[in-house]
Amino acid sequence: MRLKNKVAIITGAASGIGRVSAIVFGKEGAKVVVSDINDVDGQETVKNIRSNYGEAIYVHADVSIASDIQHLVKATVDNFGRVDILFNNAGYYLWPHTLEEVDEDEWDRTYAVNVKSIFWGAKYVIPEMKKTGSGVIINTASMAGVRPRGNVAYGSSKAAAIGLTKCLALQLAQYNIRVNVINPVATETPLLRKFLGAKTEEQLEEARKERIKSIPLRRTATPEDVAYAALYLASDEACMLTGTSLDVDGGSGL
User: Active-site residue among 58, 111, 154, 228?
Assistant: First the structure.
């Protein structure tokens, strides 16, 4: 087991990439703290892990709120005694808008969930990782942060997440805390419809076909594709990787 006895917090774990990652981490021996604002589906993720693999708890947290993250970290330490891995996976996406159409609340919410959450997560988990002399922080950004496609708020927030990852990696290397970021291409999650701007099943299928044309491997990503990339970055096999921006993109960034 690649994460045996490790304690991992995963945000946005009620569905999509977060849920699959939580299950994969549990299968690989981690004690998993599932966090989300969707309590019903978050508890379902926990139930899956407990039934099939091992230990897991659910903690409600809005990642954009400092006190929620403080509570998340405290609950993790209270239950499992430590934090080894933080996977900042929760994200927020607007329907595609021009800049003129984006209002201030939408802009602020996008940055609060996609960027500020990484700041809060790192701020409150670092003291716990310093106690054990090691740790791993993984952030989910997007290929939209590498190759912007027009959604100004989302693309720029994900570019900021990539930059923040590199800054943290440099600052935390001296404490043996590794920080990396994953950039998925369009992924088959509940957010895909919104990401592709599709309001009907027909529009979704057409938009998917169009997006696949830009992906050399000729398919969208699956949550499993991203989850196993996160597993590698979380494992000791990646012990020499920090500040890495890993594109899970089927070659679309080439």
Answer: 154
Indicate if 154 belongs to the active site.
yes
49-53, 107-111, 209-213: which range is least confident on average?
209-213
At 94 the pLDDT is 79
pLDDT in tens, 132-159: 999 999 999 999 999 987 789 999 999 9
State pTM to two decimals.
Answer: 0.95
Q: In what order do the strands lie in the sheet with 135-140?
A: 56-60, 31-36, 7-11, 85-88, 135-140, 177-184, 245-248
Q: The tokens 């990642």 sit on which residue?
A: 63
Q: What are 174-214's pLDDT values in tens digits?
A: 999 999 999 999 898 877 777 777 788 888 888 889 889 99
pLDDT of 192: 78
What are the contacts of 51-59 at 24+ separation with CB within 8 A?
Answer: 52/23, 52/26, 52/27, 53/23, 53/26, 53/27, 54/26, 54/29, 54/30, 55/26, 55/31, 55/80, 56/22, 56/26, 56/31, 56/32, 57/32, 57/33, 58/33, 58/34, 59/33, 59/34, 59/35
For the chain, how far is it from start to end, CA to CA, in angstroms?
Answer: 34
C-alpha 191/C-alpha 197 separation (Å) is 10
Please give the Cα distance from 187 to 252 (Å, whole number).
13
* Residue in 117, 57, 109, 72 with CA at minimum distance from that of residue 90: 117
Q: Phi and psi dihedrals of 183, rounded to 5?
A: -115, 95
Domain 7-185+222-248's class? alpha beta
For the chain, what are the domain ranges?
Answer: 7-185+222-248, 190-220
